[in-house]
Amino acid sequence: MSSQRTIRPRAIFLDIDGTYADHGLAPEAHVEAVRTARRNGHLVFVCTGRPLSMVPGHILAAGFDGVITGAGARVEMDGEVLKDSRFEPDVAARIVETLDAHNAAYILEAPEALHGRTGVDRRLRQVLGPVFAGRPQHDGVLSTDVDPLEDILGPMQYSDDLTSVSFAKISCFDSPVPLTGLMHHFGPEVGLIPSSLSALGDRAGEIYMAGTHKAVGIQVVEQRLGLKREDIVAIGDSANDIEMLEYAGTGIAVEGGHPGVLAVADRVTPGPAGNGVALAFAELGLLT
Q: Rounded to whole angstroms, how far apart are CA atoms 288 and 284?
């Protein structure tokens, strides 16, 4: 009788910010965990709120089986785009007009690029500079020269006229009015979650297409590959990770994450500074 253990293939979906990486820095232990799990026959996917244009090469360098971006708005596998949804033009125009009327600083997120009004980069540097100034420096990170602010500003395109821009999500970083107070202007097609940069408070947030979330993106992959839901693992820390942890057969929250994520999780793992993704992979038997 053979003593060889039968491997149960899993499909793992990883949030980036605060989970796989911390302010753009991916611990080497996380990179190696992804590579080892894939060598062992498991599938590993990025599943992020970032648009594709804001996912840098150093994050993808570990090698992944697919990428879900825009919090479920876009799904790509093996160079094939399986899903690419955007705001309807009239809804998009209404949101932009409302944010402009209230002097908000925001970015329109599309797979091809980030879009902002001329001069918004100066305001973003003022608002985000202090947030990123104290970013951690982990031992053994994949890249030690990563500037998280340039992750945002690098793909930016600026214009005084944004009416023709097609986009899937908006990140608002500085609104003089709490964003919750603007929701009635946007309409029922629009949802709002807190920014993953919690230090910005209620003047910041992510504006998205109602009904679009990370679990929707996972379902596209699930249907394409014929996955079993019980073999799906999701790891995340922010408000936009709640649905994917609820949907996954095994949902893993990052310690100190959003209360809603912790409430639906099956397990908890440390953040990037504690190599939490690698620890979770080991506990699930993905590395042996």
A: 10
Residues 93 and 201 in one domain: yes
> For the chain, how many residues are written?
288
Contact indicator for 212, 72 with CB cutoff of 8 Å: yes
Question: Tens digit of pLDDT for each residue in 123-153?
Answer: 988 888 887 775 554 444 444 456 677 778 8
**Dihedral, 127, 255, 49, 60 alpha carbons, nearest 10:** 100
Task: Please give the angle made by the CA atoms of 153, 216 and 205, to the nearest 5 degrees.
Answer: 40
Residue with tokens 């999500």: 169
Q: Are residues 81 and 101 in the same domain?
A: no
Number of domains in the chain: 2
Task: Give me the domain span that covers residue 70.
Answer: 11-85+212-284
CA-CA distance, 162 to 158, in Å (whole number)? 9
Residue 1 lies in a domain: no
> What is d(CA 203, CA 169) in angstroms, rounded to the nearest whole number?
17
pTM of the model: 0.89
Does residue 3 form part of some domain? no
Average pLDDT (246-271) is 97
Place of tokens 């994520």: 261
First to last CA, the chain: 21
Q: What span, in angstroms and rounded, lies between the C-alpha atoms of 217 and 132?
A: 29
AA identity, residue 218 = I
Same structural domain for residues 117 and 197?
Answer: yes
